[in-house]
Write a structure and sequence with these properties.
The chain is an alpha+beta fold. It is 15% helix and 34% strand.
Length: 218
């Protein structure tokens, strides 16, 4: 009788151990599920999403040809045609002038002729010539402020275009003191490169270009 009771206890103990093991196995998936975030990833929280902030890029050609890398051609004698890319303050820009349209571009020093400031400028000329501005992730180019060089003649007509040559709706406002003008894109798109393009057979000579990039409306 004593032996029977001992065996019964041992059997009951084994059954209890098996039952507890089964319960633990059933609880593991539930605990694991409770520790997951909304994306199904366990433990670590989602990293915060970086919010974009408006920025302003200023191309002040009073800095000289070395404003860009490589340096801009430093005179009319060194003028270039075709498309060339430059790095300015860590951003990539492009300048184009069509040789077939007698276009050219170079850094222009009007100070040598006694022209009052601002008298140092980027010269780019004739139909189809453009300056291409960089695309910036999460931001859209919203305004382009064009500051005149005092040595410039009559302004050409301009358009704002994409790299595919599509014209973009924009407004144009002139400064009251006659120092420049501002192009405002009406429906700018984030991460898109735009061009300031010459439409007539004249030359553009901005002393400064101020670019404002903002978060586009969703």
């Amino acid at each position: 009788m004593k032996l029977f009771r001992t065996l019964g206890f041992r059997l009951a103990g084994k059954g209890l151990t098996a039952l507890l093991a089964a319960l633990l196995l059933a609880l593991v998936p539930a605990c694991s599920s409770d520790n997951k975030d909304d994306n199904g990833d366990s433990g670590e929280p989602n990293p915060p999403t970086e919010s974009a902030e408006p920025i302003t890029l200023t191309l002040d050609f009073a800095r000289g040809p070395e404003i860009a890398t490589p340096a801009l051609p430093g005179s009319s004698k060194e003028a270039l045609t075709g498309r060339h890319e430059y790095t300015i303050d860590g951003r990539t820009f492009a300048i184009f002038a069509d040789a077939a349209a007698n276009g050219k571009f170079f850094w222009s020093d009007q100070a040598q002729y006694g022209i009052p400031e601002p008298n140092l400028a980027l010269y780019f000329s004739n139909i189809g010539a453009y300056v291409e501005f960089p695309a910036i992730e999460k931001l859209a180019l919203s305004t382009i402020e064009y500051v005149y060089s005092k040595g410039a003649g009559e302004l050409p007509e301009f358009d704002i275009q994409t790299t595919a040559g599509d014209s973009q709706a924009h407004s144009l406002d002139f400064a009251e003191e006659g120092s420049g003008m501002t192009f405002t894109l009406l429906a700018p798109t984030a991460n898109t490169a735009y061009r300031l393009t010459v439409l007539t057979g004249k030359n553009a000579q901005p002393a400064k270009l101020v670019l404002t990039y903002t978060v586009p409306e969703s």
